[in-house]
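Lab notebook, design round three. We kept the backbone fixed and only want residue identities now. Task for the bench partner: fill in a sequence for the structure below.
Input structure tokens:
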């Protein structure tokens, strides 16, 4: 599932291409919104809220979507060939010189902008919120340790606790804290965990590559995520699962650098 920095960059690019422009083409190919025609409407801004995208219109409405596991937005010149098949298209937003194509967008909602809290009001503090300050940082740390016995890995991925962390950053924050993903969150410095997560997201927000080690060199971008061997000690990385059912998530950890 895309991390918060991926959604942030997607929104930035969509905003640069579409904001302040009237749509010459506005199709939504979704069962619940099939009758919605966005042509002729003006987009005022595209902004992220954690892992959610909010496309706001001048008429006081918002097109909300969540990328889930396989959703994505591509930008093309009007005559360019699309890189993915047409049957995956769920939204087409076009101006005179740009086309924004939304592929595999399973979650799409059309609602009044004043009612956005219906879809994002449950989120915790957004780590990439431009208004981030000490108060939001303290609230994120408070939420993270609200249940001290909860496993650290699960607490970090809970979007109602803090918004924007996915598997990659959750795994790497645990590593940088030197703690197992199964450690009780009450035993962790919550303020440091929040600072680490925000720092990693901020460092990667303006480019598609994601590095938690400070280098984009192939094979060295992550400490343990997706690796067989720990980048720090060289020991074997253990792969496990946290959560149950649809909430189960794969996690990686180094038992040497992150004792349980």
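Proposed sequence:
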């Amino acid at each position: 599932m895309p991390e918060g920095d991926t959604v942030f960059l997607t929104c930035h690019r969509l905003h640069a291409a579409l904001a302040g422009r009237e749509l010459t083409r506005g199709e939504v190919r979704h069962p619940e919104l099939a009758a919605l025609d966005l042509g002729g409407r003006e987009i005022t801004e595209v902004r992220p809220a954690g892992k959610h995208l909010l496309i706001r219109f001048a008429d006081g409405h918002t097109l909300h979507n969540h990328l889930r596991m396989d959703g994505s937005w591509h930008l093309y010149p009007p005559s360019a060939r699309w890189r993915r098949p047409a049957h995956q298209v769920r939204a087409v937003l076009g101006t005179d010189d740009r086309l924004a194509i939304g592929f595999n967008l399973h979650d799409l909602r059309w609602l009044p902008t004043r009612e956005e809290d219906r879809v994002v009001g449950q989120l915790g503090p957004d780590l990439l919120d431009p208004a981030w300050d000490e108060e939001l940082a303290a609230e994120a740390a408070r939420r993270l340790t609200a249940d001290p016995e909860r496993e650290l890995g699960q607490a970090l991925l809970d979007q109602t606790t803090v918004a924007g962390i996915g598997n990659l950053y959750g795994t790497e924050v645990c590593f940088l804290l030197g703690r197992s993903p199964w450690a009780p969150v009450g035993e962790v410095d919550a303020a440091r965990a929040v600072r680490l997560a925000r720092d990693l997201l901020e460092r990667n927000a303006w480019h598609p590559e994601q590095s938690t080690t400070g280098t984009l060199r192939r094979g060295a971008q992550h400490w343990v995520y997706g690796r067989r061997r720990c980048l720090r000690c060289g020991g074997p990385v253990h792969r496990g699962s946290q959560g149950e059912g649809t909430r189960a998530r794969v996690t990686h950890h180094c038992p040497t650098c992150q004792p349980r």
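Keep this in mind before ordering anything: The mean pLDDT is 95.
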